[in-house]
Amino acid sequence: MSTSDIGLAAAPKAGHWHHGVAGIAAATLLLMLVPTLAAATGNPFLIKIATRVVVFSIAALALNLVLGFGGLVSLLHAGLFGIGGYVVGIAAFHVDEGAFLGVLPGTGELALVLPLAMVVTGLASALMGVIALRTGGAYFIMITLAFNQMIYYFFIALQQYGGEDGLQITTELTLFGHGATARVPFYYGCVAALALTLLGLRRLIDSRFGVVLRASAQNERRLTALGIPPLRYKLAAFAVSGAIAGLAGALMAASQQFISPSDMSWVRSGDLVVMCVLGGLGTMLGPVIGAATFLVLEIVLSGWSSHWQLAFGGFIIIVVVALRGGLIELFGHLVPRRSVP
User: Given CB 3.0 to 4.6 Å as the disulfide criterion, which of 61, 100, 216, 313 pairs with 104?
Assistant: First the structure.
């Protein structure tokens, strides 16, 4: 099979890859300047905001893989985000409360629980994807919404882990035996996770897998006629997307040392969709820009008025109407289009 057979341009060449890596490197360096800026302005709150931006950028990138490149409008990702957070919380909870199910000892070691969170959410995403991906369009949206609400109410029912009030992480979280929750080092760790996620997704989208995934969003029947089973590719993408969302949730739980069902409501799934659309669907840095814009505007506008959603809604309408490619389209006016990853 060639890429022309399925109606897509060939996989990007080395030059495109280098442009993409340069954009990711520039964004990473920019984010790494935040602690310096916070120290210069005497405002450590900036680091807390930036950590939240980085974590939600990872979650938005996870959704963008299936929404922007696979054409799958999922409202499940807040649930996966929450599962990742609860893996960290439950593992830490059992350090003091005895082994999980009487077998597995608790731990606050992030080198163990972060990969575990990705495995658990990747498997959960694959299991739910087996059912959801057999539908399409509005039915897919409704099934993912239903799964998300099932997860939400499941964790509300878990009274042992705080129920609706959420689970406070009181155990010290470590990384290779050293304390891992100091604000600045933890922020740099989150930025590193974001950079690795961007590079991994860049490589994945530029591969044959990415070509088939994009083709499945455009013409699934044509893929089937060529003997390519699109369901397998979409399911693999859904599982990878779930694992990345779980990583974001685990980092958020470690950051705030708290996780609650409110982090996995369907409204949060809608927020992730808005971040992707706002920044630019089907681009690498679009979800990062969208997440940063969304969260910063939320803080600034809510400080002015309790009815901040009215102004925020107007801003979204302007962006959608004027910039069909999202905010990243603005960069196209400043640099050559091919340079925008």
Answer: 100
Rounded CA-CA distance 171/160 in Å is 16
Residue 104 CB-density burial (10 A; 0-12 exposed, 13-18 middle, 19+ buried): exposed
Share of the chain above pLDDT 90, in %: 69
d(CA 205, CA 69): 8
- Residue 160, both tokens: 């042992």
pLDDT in tens, 164-196: 999 999 999 999 988 888 999 999 999 999 999
The three-state secondary structure class of 79 is helix
In Å, how far are 116, 311, 313, 320 from 307, measured between CA atoms?
40, 8, 11, 21
Burial 279-311 (b: 16+ CB within 10 A, else e): bbbbbbbbbbbbbbbbbebeeebeeeeeebeee
Name the residue among 339, 323, 214 with its Cα closest to residue 279. Answer: 323
CA 78 – CA 245 distance, rounded (Å): 8
Q: In 3-state terms, what secondary structure has residue 174?
A: strand
As separate numbers, helices (DSSP H) first and strands (DSSP E) second, the chain gives 14, 4
Condensed to tens digits (0 to 9), the pLDDT of residues 277-314 reads: 999 998 999 999 999 999 999 999 988 888 888 999 99
Contact (CB, 8 A) for 211 and 11 = yes
Q: Is the pLDDT of residue 140 over 90?
A: yes
Identity at 194, one-letter amino acid code: L
159 DSSP β-pair partners:
none
Residues 8/214, Cβ–Cβ less than 8 Å? yes
CA-to-CA separations, 312 to 54, 57, 158, 273, 292, in angstroms, rounded: 21, 19, 35, 15, 14
In the chain, where do the E strands start and end? 167-168, 174-175, 178-179, 258-259
Find how far residue 34's CA is from the centre of its chain.
21
- Tell whether the torsion through CA atoms of 14, 19, 24 and 28 is positive or negative: positive
